[in-house]
Amino acid sequence: MEKAKADIDYKNAVIRIHGLEKAFDDYEVLRGIDLELFQGENLVVLGRSGTGKSVLIKIISGLLKPDKGTIEVLGEDISTLTDHQLQALRIRIGFSFQNSALYDSMTVRKNLEFPLVRNRKNITRKEIDTSVASVLEAVGLSQTINQMPSELSGGQRKRIGIARTLILNPEIMLYDEPTAGLDPITCIEINDLINEVQQRYHTSSIIITHDLTCAKSTGDRIAMLLDGQFQREGTFKEVFDTTDNRVKPFFDYNFIQ
Amino acid sequence: MDTTDSTPIPEAPLRRKRGSKLKKSITDFFFSLYEINLFILRFFKEAFSPPFELKEIVRQCYEVGVRSFTLISLTGFIVGLIFTKQSRPSLLQFGATSWLPSLVSIAIMRALAPLVTALIAAGKVGSSIGAELGSMRVTEQIDAMEVSGTNPFKFLVVTRVLATTLTIPILATYTGFIALFGGYLNVAVNEGTSWRTYIEQVFDPLTFTDFSASLIKSIVFGFTIGIVGCYQGYNSNKGTEGVGKAANGAVVTAMFLVFIEEITIVQITSWFR
Q: B102: buried, middle or exposed (CB in 10 Å: 19+, 13-18, 0-12)?
């Protein structure tokens, strides 16, 4: 299913990346990446495993440092920020991890409360409870509030992971392989949730995936990452309506209805 | 095919390979030493800058204490009892069993209590810290903490290292008293010494230097166990294998360092006696 048109402000870029390079030892992962993410847009970064998709969003969130290039997030050049400033910026960015990264030793409630309690010093108990109930309702998992992460299914863990990022009302969402390892029905549910988040929280998102169904149903724009550079960019149709032998097999391998 | 006519193994490249392997091992060793120093420096930098995670430090102190309490109680009691029992025949030969409380107190308070506590804590607490942080690292929980605006080093490392540094001296003191009680049971059964006389004889030979050296030792051991466990766990990688290695590395390295520190502090203390 193709994605409905979103309300995107193409004059306002929330992320601007220019000439980004990153290598691990001798292996160059990203080789001169240029990218803009616009306000309200869902950008899908497609690519094979090991092409540096996750590295890209880890650099955007400041988890990894680039070797070269400039990264401007919400108007701030992250390479010039102090630790304190970077921490403040991170609160405005939500990061949904591939394996959800829920804190194993905490219940769902504590997992959701953690970012709130840590970042909003004068928050009251009532405000915490309201926020937790609100994000749990948004991801449709209110009943799991007192469960431990180990008691949740893969799809539920993904949803709670997304809820944990939403609790701080981020302006940008970064999804790392949101549908990896899930059954097709749960994948559709997660794709719908990503679109719901975009509409309800007015977020701009980068979705890292190699799942074409996810790309088709969540992306306003698709960028194909090959050999450390974006080779094709545009709508789903524009990207795959090609005879490019580096892109075609990727499309042919996936079954799209 | 004639197997005897196999190509001889070229010696020079093999030697070069061995040489480069040795060079790599040496480089790796110094690089990890450098990394550990950076980790310790970062600990001191973060520990003395706000916000101070007091609630989490108290929680970690409780965890460290509870985790080791039963084992330390049992081991301390047995060490005291057995040490007294084993020392008795030697002193009996010289008719000096009345010196037993003094001997036991010096051995326990000066050396055994801090050392036994540190070794048990290295096994119980060090491995647990290594495995916990290692597992958090490989499942990206530490990254998740970082991107949600929390400084994971301060929240996970500083709190745990402070907890072990503060709690292990308390546990060592407790071990000392439990061990002395174990020793008392043996003395009381064999000599019929009263508790009061035993305690007087126990504290008589002990000096301020003994108590302070023992306390300093426990603080150093506590810091070592915490920092090694955290370093191993915080920097672990390679998935579940890395978690196992972190837990194992935390125990082995901490125990090794505890023995080195024990020898060093005993030597330094002897200059003050």
A: middle
- Chain A interface includes B141 (CB < 8 A): yes
In this predicted structure, the answer to whether residue B133 has a pLDDT above a threshold of 50 is yes
Mean pLDDT of B155-166: 96
**CA dist., res. B21 & res. A228, Å (int):** 32
CA distance B174 to chain A (A): 29
Q: Where are the domains of chain A?
A: 41-57+85-241
User: Nearest CA to CA, how far is A69 from chain B (Å)?
Assistant: 21
CB contact under 8 A, B144 and A97: yes
Residue A164 vs residues A106, A128, A193, A235: alpha-carbon distances, Å = 13, 12, 14, 30
Asked if B148 is an interface residue toward chain A (Cβ–Cβ < 8 A), one would say yes
Size of interface A-B (CB pairs under 8 A): 59
Instruction: Judge: B139–A104 Cβ closer than 8 Å, yes or no.
Output: yes
Question: Which whole-number Å values give the CA distances from B141 to A103, A171, B43, B128, in the listed order?
Answer: 6, 22, 20, 17
Q: What's the pLDDT score for residue B7?
A: 52
Residue A246 has pLDDT above 80, yes or no: no
Put simply, the answer to whether B143 touches A98 (Cβ < 8 Å) is no
Mean pLDDT throughout B20-49?
88
Tell me which CATH homologous superfamily contains domain A41-57+85-241: P-loop containing nucleotide triphosphate hydrolases (3.40.50.300)
Specify the pLDDT at position B144. Answer: 94
**Residues A202-244 pLDDT 10s:** 999 999 998 888 998 999 999 988 888 888 888 888 887 777 7
Sign of CA dihedral A98, A101, A107, A112: negative
Which residue in A has a C-alpha nearest to residue B139's C-alpha?
A101
Least confident of A158-162, A210-214, B116-120: A210-214
Of B136, B146, B151, the CB nearest to A63: B146
